[in-house]
Every structure is written in C-alpha cells, then in structure tokens.
Amino acid sequence: MLSVLNVVAPVFMLIAIGYGAARFRYFPREGVRGLIAYVNNVATPCLLFRAMAGVDLETAFNPSILFGFYTAALCVLLVGSLLAFHVFRRRPGESVAVGFSGTFTNTVLVGIPIIQRAYGEEAMPVVYSIIGLHAPVLVTLAMFVMELARRDGGKISKALLQGTRTTLTNPLLIGIALGLLLNLSGFELGGLVDEVTGLFAITVFPVALFGLGAALNDYRLAQGWVQPLVMALFKLIAQPTIAWILMVPVLGLDPELARYGVLLAAMPAGINVYVFATYYNRAVDVAANTILISTVLSIVTISVWLLILPV
Questions:
Q1: If phi over 0 gives left and psi between -120 and 50 gives alpha, with beta otherwise, what is residue 186?
Q2: How many angstroms separate the CA atoms of 95 and 273, rounded?
Q3: Most buried one in 73, 86, 181, 237, CB count within 10 A?
Q4: pLDDT tens digits, residue range 237-257?
Q5: What letter would DSSP give residue 283?
Q6: What's the CATH fold of domain 2-308?
Q7: Dist. CA 123–CA 144, nearest whole Å
Q8: Can you list the residues of the chain whose pLDDT is less than 70?
Q9: 287 vs 96: CA distance, rounded Å
Q10: pTM to 2 decimals?
Q11: Cβ neighbours of 20 (radius 10 Å)
C-alpha cells in the first residue's frame, strides 16, 4: 500500500497545487490553455521523439496490447452511446458525445506520469505506442460515428477528411514519426538536437500535472451529475476491466506486460472529450463534468488498480 501511495500522492499533489494556484490567482487562468498547449504541442512531442529514437520496436508495438486497449475503448463508446440514447433519452448526436466522454483517456497529463512512477522506463515504449495512435484512431472514429448518428449532420466525407487532417497535423504523432525515422535510419540521437529535446522532455511531468490542476477550475459540476458519473465509472472501471480480459484470459498476454496497457486504460477522461463535445455542440455539460468527476475519482480507482496490478 505504501508503494502505491508513493506513486499516486506526488502526482495528485501537483494537480492540487495547480488547482489552488489558479483558484487563488497565483497563476493566471488566462495562461492555462497556453500551458496545456505547450505540453501537448511542444514538450511531449520532444519526449516521444526521444523515446521512439532509441526504442526496441518489437517490444513497443505489441499487437495484443494495442488490440485490447482499443477494443475496450470501442466497447465503451458503443455501450455508452446506446445507454445515453435508450436510458438517458439523449438525441443521437448527443448520445455519441456522451459515449465518447467515457472513451477517451488522459494519456499524457496523467497517464505518462503515473505509469512511469509505477513501472519505470521499461513500461514507457508500450505506453508511447498507444499514445501515438490514441487521438488519430478514437477521434476519427468518433467523428465518423457522430456524422452517422446526428440527424442534422454533415457529409461523412467531411468527417473523414477532418480526421485525416487531425492525424497528419497531430504534434504527438509527428514526434513519434520523426523518432521512428531516426530509429530506422540507424543514426543515434546526439548533439544539439539531443540537448534541446532533452530540456523540453524533462518539463513534461510537472508542467502537465500543474496545468491539468489549473484547468480543472474551468469545470463546474452542473445539476445533472448522474450521466457524467456513469461515464466516469465506464472510463475508470469498465474500460480497463475489458482491456484486461481481452489481453490476459483471451489473448494469453503476460500479465506483467498487459498491466501497462490496462493501467493506461484506467486513467481519467482526457480534455479532448470536452473539445469533441464543443466542436459538435453536443452534451457539453456531460463531457465537462465527466472530466471533473473522473479526475477526482481516479485518486481512488488508480490506487485500487495499482494494488490489483502490483507495482
């Protein structure tokens, strides 16, 4: 139990400090968006570039882990959307946005720091391989489903085009692609590039966690808390459980390897949930509250998963 607290406590303490700094105006709230943009568009791509430049590709891109992680996410998207439509009586487009709220993982701001502290550098190649596909796969799929579902939707081709554009311009994917190219070329990372990207990379964890805490000030628990609570439980419990079942009993993956993907699936909802909902103006309240509730509850659920998946 003490080892779990050693992993979780510093991470959520940094989030709490970020929240308090923005809440009491020691850090300007106007700067929060820029801080998150820095992490996602500059620092983390440098981290991923460095990781992929020297990674063992056979170890990083494990088909069983990728299949288990993304199939679990798709199951939650499907079940969550159907539940929103049939039980919560949401319109089709709103139902997709609700389902997506329980699907998209906060891989960068919470996932990377937690898993690195829990399992060390040996876990990170697998984590980075999932992150590289995460936004392109899930956002593109969700946009496609949204265009099929909403009655006032646009052309499906537009969704696919937007998804392709998002993929090709995604800084995280660009960082991974450049790192892989360097890896395959046989050249070693060194010199000025090594030093500059290294300086950016070491800022990811503290800035990401501080920025996430500051960003939570923008979310307020609205009157309708039941739907986001259900989606938060889908995200924190159902998705990693499905991932574990697929990876270990079904595909026979070594539990010590599967735990990297399972724990990543157990992270709270990511900010792209809110971006997606606001882009389509569908179930924005559920998206915002799912981020807030899942992040708070994850203090407990991540600790439980770390006990189940020993550190």
A1: left
A2: 13
A3: 73
A4: 999 999 999 999 999 999 999
A5: S
A6: Na+/H+ antiporter like fold (1.20.1530)
A7: 32
A8: 1-2, 150-167, 222-223, 311
A9: 11
A10: 0.85
A11: 14
